[in-house]
Write a structure and sequence with these properties.
The chain is of the alpha/beta class and 312 residues long. The chain has a five-stranded mixed β-barrel with strand order 2-4-5-8-6. Strand 3 and strand 4 form a beta hairpin. Helix 2 runs antiparallel to helix 7. The protein is rod-shaped, with a radius of gyration of 44 Å. The chain starts with a helix and ends in a 5-residue tail after the last helix.
Length: 312
């Protein structure tokens, strides 16, 4: 077996198998590394209130490093933008979030982008002076109500204000028959089309709302939505672990395939040698002196009767 494995072609095949197995091992290591997802930002970072304009810019995605951050924002609430987000739980009870658009005042020195016109049928600006001036709008969760109803029946925040809350990523939209004043998910893309304004790719769950430094109390029929910092565990992705084990098995299979081919070649060599030996033995048996019938006729002796001579 060793003599067969040392043939040049099988040595080259072994080198190829080692190269393929090395690639599989690297892929397995990459899958193991990817199985541990990046932990969320530490509470020591997210609980420090930062200006929204320093954390996120309009029309840019919210990355995991900035999500869950406590932010402060100045601007004004936009009239006519209040909606209800259905199917929200609070202490086991099902209700809705009360959400309203908030035009964020751009940071000092920032260039004003062109405003998206939000004209009503009468030609009046429905998004307020701040939106008309180019301020981007971010949805703000003001509270939770248990009974679904007409959004217009709930009190709206109006005018300039300051908001402090937690910055969260938007939800995916859901396709369903539209209901006036209600949306199934808090999708900023859907709200941008509904309000016809530029929006941030995130929303804020308000913990404090103030006007001129004076806190605005939440409505009596609304409960505060409290969102705490994310748990600091590093979750495992078991699908990546399965793939890592699979790549490791593939690496072992490369060596097994090489050994199997060498074993088959060695077995063929043994069978060919056995066939050659069998043929040699058969040829030797057919060519031996004792195997010819003519040797018996040459040694026969004749009797007087067979000689043909007459003896009186």
């Amino acid at each position: 077996m060793l003599k067969t494995a040392l043939k040049p072609r099988w040595i080259l095949m072994l080198i190829l198998a080692m190269a393929i197995a090395s690639v599989f091992v690297l892929l397995s290591q990459w899958q193991f590394t990817s199985s541990r997802e990046e932990p969320p930002p530490a509470p020591s970072t997210t609980e420090q209130v930062r200006p929204l304009t320093d954390v996120l810019q309009p029309l840019t995605p919210l990355y995991a490093t900035a999500a869950d951050q406590m932010v402060s924002l100045d601007g004004e609430f936009l009239p006519g933008t209040q909606v209800l987000v259905r199917n929200r739980l609070l202490e086991g009870d099902e209700g809705s979030w009360v959400v309203q658009g908030f035009a964020v005042t751009p940071a000092a020195g920032a260039s004003d982008a062109a405003a998206s016109p939000a004209e009503s049928a009468s030609g009046d600006t429905a998004s307020g002076d701040a939106a008309a001036a180019g301020a981007a709008v971010i949805p703000v969760v003001l509270g939770w109500v248990q009974e679904d109803g007409d959004a217009s029946a709930l009190p709206e925040q109006e005018g300039p204000a300051s908001v402090v809350g937690r910055l969260l990523p938007p939800e995916a939209p859901e396709v369903e028959r539209p209901v006036e004043g209600e949306v199934p998910t808090l999708s900023t893309a859907e709200l941008a089309n509904l309000w016809d304004v530029r929006t941030y790719s995130a929303f804020v769950v308000a913990s404090d709302v103030s006007v001129g430094g004076v806190a605005v109390p939440f409505a009596a029929d609304m409960a505060r939505v409290v969102v705490g910092p994310q748990p600091q565990e590093t979750p495992l992705n078991w699908l990546n672990i399965f793939y890592a084990i699979e790549w490791f098995v593939f690496a072992g299979f490369a060596f097994f395939l090489w050994w199997r081919l060498v074993a088959d070649d060695h077995r063929r060599m043994l069978e060919d040698a056995a066939d050659a030996a069998e043929e040699a033995r058969g040829a030797l048996t057919e060519g031996s002196p004792g195997g010819s019938s003519e040797s018996f006729d040459a040694t026969r002796t004749t009797t007087p009767h067979e000689s043909g001579a007459h003896r009186d």
